[in-house]
Amino acid sequence: MLDAPSIRAADVIEDTQMRAHAVSGPLEPRFDAFLDGSQLTLVARWQGVIPIVFGTVSAAIRQRRERRLSTWGAPLVRRALYAPMSQLDRDVARVLNEMGVAVVDTLERREPDSGHPFALQELAYQAVLADRERVETELAVRWCERERGVLYLDGGISGSATVARAANVVGVIKSHQTLYAEGDALAVVSALTTGQRSSVVRIESSRRTSVASWYLRVADAAGRDPFWGLVRVEVALDDDRSALGRRADDVSRWILAERLPLALPDPRWDKMAYGIRDAEEYLRAVQ
Fold first, then answer.
1. What is residue 136's predicted lDDT score, i.e. its pLDDT?
2. Concatenated DSSP letters of 6-37
3. Long-range pairs for 90-98 at CB < 8 Å and ≥24 separation?
4. Confidence of residue 115 (pLDDT cuts 50, 70, 90)
5. CA 231, CA 273: separation in Å to the nearest integer?
6. DSSP for 104-144, written as a single string
């Protein structure tokens, strides 16, 4: 289950208010590598009304050299059983802990919204997603520590201070359950045309590192919903606001250059770079 759709305010740091910027200049593919993650979940058993979920999370970086993609380092693949341990029969909990597979107590991180069995199942699914983010972040940190090339990360960068402050990592978010634009600003974002970006904003959170972000239209949305072909980009903050504007233009050109080849037949081809689709295909083979 996705989080409920929401709108949050964000501080516009490039202009006095949100506006559209045309991204001009030659499109150049500057990304050296692409990072994506994946997860698989399966209810392994129902112990009465309590679900025991088996989850696999993975992440990989596909590095581009001479227009060919190959795996950088080794992919991360981790498997675990997810269950509310305190609610299980003591003997069942003991058997799980003796199976030789990592066991995650889903009640250690958060409480369910209710005692409904499906609420417990959703809690397990959210725990798997959190572990997927952890392996993606771990791999991104390794890249930052060892490489200088530019990394295209499928998703946000704010979960790790190391990644969020790295000049060579760009996060590209395809989903828009949370919008960082209110009122007139939302109207500007939804009206962006292909090759236009929004003003740069600062996204802050008490639990994550602050980042600079903007919206970019990478595919024509005529006749479709307002978020077709729309991505949100995250990069490290820079105190120089004029430098942030130039950075946004440069990075936007790099992202627009990744539109070909198209990521077909993936249904998210309007927002997905081919390098990310390649990473997903690779992960399907190694999970």
1. 97
2. EE---EE-SSSS--EEE--S-------EEEEE
3. 92/47, 96/52
4. confident
5. 11
6. EETTTT---SSS-HHHHHHHHHHHHHHHHHHHHHHHHHHHH
Token pair belonging to 11: 């501080």
> 279 — alpha (psi -120 to 50), left (phi > 0) or beta?
alpha
The type of residue at 85 is M
d(CA 187, CA 4): 20
Q: pLDDT tens, 146-190?
A: 999 999 999 999 999 999 999 999 999 999 989 999 999 999 999
Residues pairing with 35 in the sheet: 61, 153
- pLDDT, residue 152, reads 98
- Token pair listed for 277: 């689709």
**How many whole angstroms separate alpha carbon 6 and alpha carbon 18?**
19
CA-only gyration radius of the chain, Å: 20
Burial of 250: CB neighbours in 10 Å, binned 0-12, 13-18, 19+: middle
Q: To which residue do tokens 């992440």 refer?
A: 59
Q: Which two tokens stand for residue 35?
A: 């990072």
How many C-beta neighbours within 10 Å does residue 242 have? 9
8 Å CB contact between 79 and 55? yes
Residues with Cβ within 8 Å of residue 54, at least 6 apart in sequence:
41, 42, 43, 44, 79, 80, 81, 82
Give pLDDT, residue 243.
87
The SS3 call for residue 151 is: strand
How do 230-235 and 211-217 pair as beta strands?
Answer: antiparallel
Asked if 18 and 198 touch (Cβ cutoff 8 Å), the reply is yes
Tell me the pLDDT band of 287, cut-offs 50, 70 and 90: confident
Q: Amino acid identity, residue 233?
A: V
| pTM of this structure | 0.92
How long is the chain? 287
pLDDT, tens digit, for every residue of 261-281? 777 787 788 899 999 999 999
